C-alpha cells in the first residue's frame, strides 16, 4: 500500500472534446461529492498560483475541468469531470488560490430544451438514443434495458431530465450522470457485473466500516424512505464511483457493496487524501 501515499494530480481546463490547458506539478486541493441520484455532482477544486491566461479559460462558455489523480508507478485516472459554474481568486499569504466550483452534467441538463417526436411503434431504446445524443453525453450500455414499444408514438417538449424521467419510469429504471456518462439502472442496482475495486487494509481501506441509516426521500405524497448501509473510508481510488461494485474485506465486514455516494477530499501538498463511501451490501 505504500505506493498509494505517493500521489499526484493533473488538471485539464477547456471545452470537452477540444484541446485545453494541462496543469501538472501545481498544488491542487479538492472536495468532491458524488452520488447516484439525478442531481448534478459537485466538485470544488482549488488550484494554486495559475497564470492569468489559464484563468481566462475559466471565463469561456462551456468550460469544463477534468481532474485526474494517480500514484507512483501508475497512470493517472479520471476522478471528476465537471462544467465550471463559479470561480474566484483568494489570497493566502504568498499564494493565489483559484477556487473553482464544477457540476457534472450541469450544462446539458440546465441549458438545453429538447423536442422529441417519434412515430408509432418507436421503442424505448430509440428514444433514449435520441435524448443521449441531444445531451452530448457519453452513454453506457443500454442493450439489456426493456425495450417497450410506443404504439401511439411519443412526443415531448421540455427539459432532458424530465424526458428521461418519463421514459424510464415506464420500465422501472432510474438515471444518474457520473463523469459525463449517463448511467441507467434499476434502483439500487449497478450497470456492471465486474468489481471496480477490492478494499482491504493492505489496499487502501482506512479503519473499520461503520453502519449508517439515513433518510433518502421525503415528499408530500409518499412515505419517507430510508436506507441502511455502510460508511467505508479509504485512500482516494478513482474507480470508486456511484453505481460501481466494490469488494470489502475487514475485521468486521466482508462482502460486495454497491456504491451509493462517495466524497473525495485531497490535497497534493498536505495529508488530506481520503474517500468516504456510502454503500449498501449486495
Short description:
This protein is mainly beta and 282 residues long. It folds into three domains: 1-105, Thrombin, subunit H; 111-185, Phage tail protein beta-alpha-beta fold, CATH 3.55.50; 188-282, Elongation Factor Tu (Ef-tu), domain 3 (Beta Barrel). The protein is built from four helices and 20 strands.
List keywords for this structure.
282 residues; mainly beta; Thrombin, subunit H; Phage tail protein beta-alpha-beta fold; Elongation Factor Tu (Ef-tu), domain 3; 13-stranded mixed β-sheet; 3-stranded mixed β-sheet; 20 strands; 12% helix; flat
Structure, explained:
- With 282 residues, this protein is mostly beta strands.
- It is 12% helix and 50% strand.
- Strands 1, 2, 3, 4, 5, 6, 7, 15, 16, 17, 18, 19 and 20 form a 13-stranded mixed sheet that branches. Strands 10-14-13 form a 3-stranded mixed sheet, covered by helices on one side.
- A hairpin with a 2-residue loop joins β13 and β14.
- The protein starts with 6 loop residues before the first strand and ends with a strand.
- The relative contact order is 0.16.
Helix fraction? 10-25%
Number of helices: 4
Taken as a percent bin, the fraction of beta residues is over 45%
What is the molecular shape?
A: flat
* CATH topology call of the largest domain: Thrombin, subunit H
Question: What's the SSE pattern?
Answer: EEEEHEEEHEEHEEEHEEEEEEEE
Task: Assign the CATH class of the largest domain.
Answer: Mainly Beta
Rg, Cα atoms, Å: 20 Å
Shape-level CATH architecture of the largest domain: Beta Barrel
Estimated structural class: mainly beta
Average of pLDDT: 90
How many domains make up the coordinates? Answer: 3
**Largest pleated sheet:** 13 strands, mixed
Low-pLDDT sequence parts: 218-222
Tell me the number of strands: 20
Distance N to C terminus? 26 Å
Amino acid at each position: 500500500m505504500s505506493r498509494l501515499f505517493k500521489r499526484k494530480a493533473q488538471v485539464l481546463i477547456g471545452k470537452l472534446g477540444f484541446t485545453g490547458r494541462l496543469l501538472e506539478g501545481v498544488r491542487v486541493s479538492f472536495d468532491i461529492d458524488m452520488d447516484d441520484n439525478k442531481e448534478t455532482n459537485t466538485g470544488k477544486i482549488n488550484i494554486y498560483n495559475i497564470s492569468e491566461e489559464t484563468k481566462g479559460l475559466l471565463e469561456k462558455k462551456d468550460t469544463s475541468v477534468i481532474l485526474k489523480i494517480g500514484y507512483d508507478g501508475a497512470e493517472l485516472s479520471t476522478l471528476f469531470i465537471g462544467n465550471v459554474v463559479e470561480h474566484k481568486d483568494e489570497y493566502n499569504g504568498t499564494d493565489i488560490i483559484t477556487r473553482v466550483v464544477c457540476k457534472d452534467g450541469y450544462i446539458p441538463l440546465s441549458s438545453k430544451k429538447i423536442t422529441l417526436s417519434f412515430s408509432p411503434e418507436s421503442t424505448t431504446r430509440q428514444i433514449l438514443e435520441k435524448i443521449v445524443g441531444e445531451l452530448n453525453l457519453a452513454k453506457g450500455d443500454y442493450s439489456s434495458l426493456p425495450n417497450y414499444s410506443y404504439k401511439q408514438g411519443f412526443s415531448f417538449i421540455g427539459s432532458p431530465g424530465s424526458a428521461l424521467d418519463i421514459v424510464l419510469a415506464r420500465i422501472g429504471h432510474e438515471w444518474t450522470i457520473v463523469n459525463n456518462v449517463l448511467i441507467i439502472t434499476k434502483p439500487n442496482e449497478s450497470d456492471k457485473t465486474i468489481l471496480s475495486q477490492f478494499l482491504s487494509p493492505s489496499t487502501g481501506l482506512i479503519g473499520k466500516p461503520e453502519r449508517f441509516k439515513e433518510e433518502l426521500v421525503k415528499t408530500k405524497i409518499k412515505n419517507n424512505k430510508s436506507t441502511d448501509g455502510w460508511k467505508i473510508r479509504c485512500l482516494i481510488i478513482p474507480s470508486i464511483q456511484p453505481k460501481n461494485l466494490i469488494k470489502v474485506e475487514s475485521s468486521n465486514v466482508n462482502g460486495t457493496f454497491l456504491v451509493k455516494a462517495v466524497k473525495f477530499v485531497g490535497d497534493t501538498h498536505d495529508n488530506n487524501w481520503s474517500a468516504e463511501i456510502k454503500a449498501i451490501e449486495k
